[in-house]
Design a protein that fits this description.
Helix content of chain B: 25-40%
Largest interface: A-B, 53 and 47 residues
CATH topology of the largest domain in chain A: Nucleotidyltransferase, domain 5
Strand content of chain B: 15-25%
Shape of chain A: elongated
CATH class of the largest domain in chain A: Alpha Beta
Radius of gyration of chain A: 24 Å
CATH architecture of one domain in chain B: 2-Layer Sandwich
Strand order of the largest sheet of chain B: 4-3-2-5-6
Number of helices of chain A: 3
Distance between the termini of chain B: 84 Å
Structural class of chain B: alpha/beta
Structural class of chain A: alpha/beta
Oligomer: heterodimer
CATH architecture of the largest domain in chain A: 2-Layer Sandwich
CATH topology of one domain in chain B: Nucleotidyltransferase, domain 5
Chain lengths: ~160, ~150
């Protein structure tokens, strides 16, 4: 049998299937990882706006995710935070305050984590700006100044 | 021809060719899916007001971007781009000039977005996207209650 180099018998290299299978499996794993890396599992009723220049999401931070839903049939907006639905933004303040205290406490216990708590606003693309502003006001009332807006890279 | 080659000891031999076929099909599936995958990203903003400062704040020339209820974008009351334009090329070009001038003057470029309360949130994101292109980070967001 020829050596590991190329299996040359009678002057012609043999086709080695084992390294090809290795490479195929590596490529397969690569594509499996990149397709399942991002799972939009937070609130699928929301159609996020598109922004090409947005940055990669920083998942290492302590954060609260506020979903701003829009019902175009009833022209009604609602806020979804920690799987609870709020019709008025003012009702968000206390849950946000609790989440901030808990998030900062958890971040302090973990070494190397950014201790600053932030709010991620996931607003529907059709929601009037007023309701996003109300969610931002709630964050400001609790003392959170670091706010980011969720977007998607394409439709 | 037998479907599976059976060796002298009566055990089934491992067939690599069908396995490679299956792996190819799975790989093709994931390659096609990789192009269509939606990635959630973020546009950053920082609310003013909570910054602690011991020195007086210097007020620079502030740029105000208005968004009307129909989605018309105007910069310091000059309308730019069309209502249908998502990329906002004129706004991007103007903001890049403003940023360049501010950098030359060694001052921060400060922009305030004033949106009509009925304007769609996606229009605010279009403007924030244009600001991200111009690398302007000092942004405040306001909603016009009138």
């Amino acid at each position: 049998m020829a050596g590991g180099g190329g299996g040359i018998e009678k002057g012609e290299p043999d086709f080695q299937i084992a390294p090809m299978v290795d490479v195929l499996l590596v490529i397969l794993i690569f594509f499996m990882i990149i397709t399942s890396a991002q799972v939009l599992n937070i609130d699928k009723t929301i159609k996020l706006p598109i922004a090409a220049e947005a940055l990669k999401k920083d998942d290492s931070r302590a954060e609260a995710i506020v979903n701003v839903r829009w019902d175009p049939a009833g022209n009604v907006a609602s806020f979804n935070f920690q799987d609870k639905l709020y019709s008025k933004s003012a009702d968000l303040v206390e849950p946000l305050r609790t989440a901030k205290i808990q998030g900062e406490k958890n971040a302090a216990e973990k070494a190397g984590q950014n201790p600053e708590f932030r709010v991620v606003i996931r607003g529907d693309r059709d929601v009037p700006a007023l309701f996003v502003s109300q969610a931002m006001n709630c964050a400001a009332e609790v003392g959170i100044s670091d706010i980011s807006f969720s977007t998607v890279n394409h439709d | 021809m037998k479907p599976f080659p059976i060796d002298d000891e009566g055990t089934l031999g491992f067939q690599i060719a069908p396995m490679v076929d299956v792996v190819f099909v799975i790989m093709l599936f994931f390659m096609v899916m990789a192009g269509a995958v939606k990635v959630e990203k973020e546009l950053l903003s920082r609310l003013p007001g909570s910054a602690e400062s011991s020195t007086p704040t210097e007020f620079n020339d502030e740029t105000i971007i208005n968004i009307s209820d129909e989605g018309e974008v105007s910069l310091n009351e000059d309308p730019l781009d069309t209502v249908d334009s998502v990329d906002l090329p004129q706004l991007k070009a103007t903001l890049m000039r403003i940023k360049e001038n501010a950098d030359n003057a060694k001052q921060p470029a400060v922009v305030t977005i004033v949106s009509d309360q009925h304007a769609k949130y996606s229009r605010t994101i279009d403007v924030l996207n244009a600001l991200a292109v111009a690398k302007i980070t000092n942004v405040t967001f306001n909603v016009n209650d009138d």
